[in-house]
Amino acid sequence: MTDQAYNFAYLDEQTKRMIRRAILKGLAIPGYQVPFASREMPMPYGWGTGGVQVSAAVLTPDDTFKVIDQGADDTTNAVSIRTFFERTAGVATTTATADASVIQTRHRIPEDQLSEEQILVYQVPIPEPLRFLEPRESETRKMHSLEEYGLMHVKLYEDISCHGHIATSYAYPVRVEGRYVMDPSPIPKFDNPKMADMAAIQLFGAGREQRIYALPPYTKVVSLDFEDHPFEASKADHPCGMCGAEDSYLDELIVDDTGGRMFVCSDTDYCEARQAAGHKGKDAA
Amino acid sequence: MQAEILSGGFADPAIQSAHAFRSVMEAMARPGTIHDIAGATPPAPLSPAAGAVLLTLCDTDTPVYLAGACDCDAVRNWLAFHTGAPFAGPAHCMFAIGTWDALAPLSAYRIGTSEYPDRSATLIVERTDLSASGTLLKGPGIKGRAALSLPEVAAFQANATLFPLGLDFLFTSGDRFAALPRTTEVM
């Protein structure tokens, strides 16, 4: 198999120009979903085709590329996308957050604070925050144009009336610069505060739904809430079993068939770096 | 004449346009910051920066408006050969290129619609000089305040009030450029 048979970063130049123009308009209108002509990629929809196309349009040969899937560098999806760009773009890859210049992510924001030199590319399944409230695209488009977001507040209110608190725990809607309501992709709401005033550029690609949107650095991103039910970034109330971190988002693992469980950092790089630095949790071997 | 038209494009289009786009993206994401951009040697009066931006973003899908002195045979033929972009008037263009005076009036350009604010023109303004001083800027992409030498202030203030509609600007000078999207508040 000759990887050189492909153009740099797989996509042809005209496709990349189209995606690049969409990215620029996305940055100029933060939170607005720019339609783009998504291409067939050599992986199924739902495996990050939107993020891959955005990464392909953004990467240069000088970049160091990192891919995370639910925080992990070593899952199938992350490994195959990383290998894909190693082969088609010849970029260096890493698992260390601090060493990466472009980070493609599925459903997490790294625990380490990102810098101005970094770009975060999100894989987005359903870019329209209003989609499950209003299935018609013609209507949701009108609602965005009229800033008609009452329905979203009704949804959050119904959460409170049913559960006593806002039960939405991921893909928690945000308002960008006081204008567009945006789906932050299915990141846990624990990650929502990290989107605001981030030093890095944040790009969102939805391949099947053919939308690109973006957040420039230092942009105001507010999670929707109510005065008497303020937004709360929640996580499992445990320290990490491996590294003992109390400030990171945790995955719950079932470890035996008698109900035993442990909590570990979802960000594998963060957890490994802490363990290497000598931090130990109660479940560490 | 012929040689001038055929030369001056990207020698290695995939790689050079990738680098050029990263500069354009950084500029658009961080209004007021000045970036270098290289790889194009377009015919006069186009600046190398403007040439590189056009090569990076324009193709047969993007009508281009050449304003004032830019609308000459040399530029038309060069752009047609290297990008294939069709030429259009200000009312139909996606990109416009020229000096600030030649591009006026701004009311001629598309600012998008409330349902599709992205369907708006991007203006590439050729400047003799560009410096990170003068008019103060604030808004998304700017930590605190930034400054940029703008040709005037009122037009950009009026443009920002149209948000989410409006025009986006790139200012080019030699091989340097900066950007001013519609979100930036000009003070």
Account of the protein in words:
Chain B: One of its GO terms (biological process) is organic phosphonate metabolic process. Chain B: Its EC number is 2.7.8.37. The complex is a heterodimer of chains A (285) and B (187). With 285 residues, chain A is of the alpha/beta class. In chain A, 26% of the residues lie in helices and 18% in strands. In chain A, the strands form 3 sheets. A 7-stranded mixed beta sheet of chain A has the order 1-9-8-5-4-2-3. Chain A is globular, with a radius of gyration of 19 Å. The longest helix of chain B has 17 residues. In chain B, the strands form 2 sheets. Chain B has a 6-stranded mixed beta sheet with strand order 1-8-7-4-3-2. A 3-stranded antiparallel beta sheet of chain B has the order 6-5-9. Chain B has 187 residues and is α/β, with parallel strands linked by helices. Chain B has one domain: Bacterial phosphonate metabolism protein PhnH (Rossmann fold). In chain B, helix 2 packs across helix 3. At the A-B interface, helix 1, strand 1 and helix 4 of A face helix 2 of B.
Question: Quick summary of this structure?
Answer:
Chain B: One of its GO terms (biological process) is organic phosphonate metabolic process. The complex is a heterodimer of chains A (about 280) and B (about 190). Chain A has about 280 residues and is of the alpha/beta class.
User: Which of globular, elongated, flat, extended, rod-shaped describes the shape of chain B?
Assistant: globular
Q: Characterize the biggest β-sheet of chain B.
A: 6 strands, mixed
In total, how many domains does the architecture of chain A comprise? 2
Radius of gyration of chain B using CA atoms only: 16 Å
Q: What share of the residues of chain A lie within helices?
A: 25-40%
Widest sheet, order of strands of chain B: 1-8-7-4-3-2
- Content-based structural category of chain A: alpha/beta
Tell me the number of strands of chain B.
9
Topology, number of strands of chain A: 12
CATH superfamily of chain B: Bacterial phosphonate metabolism protein PhnH
The ordered H/E elements of chain A are HEHEHEEEHHEEHEEEEEH
Instruction: Characterize the largest beta sheet of chain A: strand count, sense, and whether it forms a barrel.
Output: 7 strands, mixed
